[in-house]
Amino acid sequence: MSDTRGHEGRHSHDTTHRGTHAQAQGHGHGHGHGHSHGHGWADFDWEALLPLLVGEAELFSGAYREAAAWIGGQRPDTEVRRILDIGSGPGVVTCLLAEAFPQAEVVAVDGNRALLGHALARAERLGLGDRVRTIETELPAGFGQLGEADLIWAGNSLHHLGDQRAALAGFARLLRPGGTVALAEGGLPTRRLPRDIGMGKPGLEARIDVLVDERFARMRAELPDAKEETEDWGALLTSVGLVSPATRSFLVDHPAPLAPAVRDQVVYAFARTSETVGDQLSPEDAAVLARLMDPRDPAGLTHRPDVFLLAARSIHTARRAT
């Protein structure tokens, strides 16, 4: 297996084909802030989504730091020496994990070479380049390339693998004794606007959520080896032999009035919504969305004083027995 260590540009990855990456996600299933993919999402231009992936992950970084501290507190007497970040994308969380576990080597695992290059460049800028490396591969085919780990972080990437239980079993086999799997899956839908925004029928974001959930279900159904699972993550983790399941949710709260960078990210997220499900909206909702996206409209996202960003991300953990 080839990998990269340190500097961007020294890429010599083993690869099958395009892989998994998903931590910048938007609604309760964790896609749409989104970048993980299986075959059902292979036509996405993930590098073109880089501003969305990085921007939203940075907005959620406080929650991810809290999650990393919580995970570390579950095993204070166990040294974390090697971490796998499954579906790392451009490496925002990869670098947060390297900061949270200063003795650990952190391996960004993704199927997109360009995004892995961004992950390495970010690590270099933050002075973490000596402890961050990458593996370009797709799961489940690439499990044999990953090596063992003390912590496996899968940030909204598991749901892009058809057989989630089999993938969890693969993670479990990679854990060292006492090691932890941490899944970022689910939470609460992101909200950016009041229920009643003064135009159209109240509840626009809730109706958009329904369309995005339906799109997610179609994506899941189209994945190779797709198997339906009840999303009881603790039960799934223990079903593959892991112990001590735990779940905690972390709040992301950027109240109005928003800083310009946060507002830009909200506008970008709604633009993605328009691209992905806009043609499925009712004529009334489509007209409202068009006004929200119009930078000249005083009622649009660019000018509204009531725009905010509120979400919760759930982290599910379990460990291998010592």
From TrEMBL:
* Keyword annotations: Methyltransferase, Transferase
Q: Name one GO biological process term.
A: methylation
Which residue intervals are annotated with compositional bias (Basic residues) in the record? Answer: 28-37
Q: Name one Pfam family in it.
A: Methyltransf_12
- InterPro entries linked: Methyltransf_12, SAM-dependent_MTases_sf
Any one Gene Ontology molecular-function term assigned to this protein's record = methyltransferase activity
Q: Which PANTHER family match?
A: TRANS-ACONITATE 2-METHYLTRANSFERASE, TRANS-ACONITATE 2-METHYLTRANSFERASE-RELATED
Name the record gives this protein: Class I SAM-dependent methyltransferase
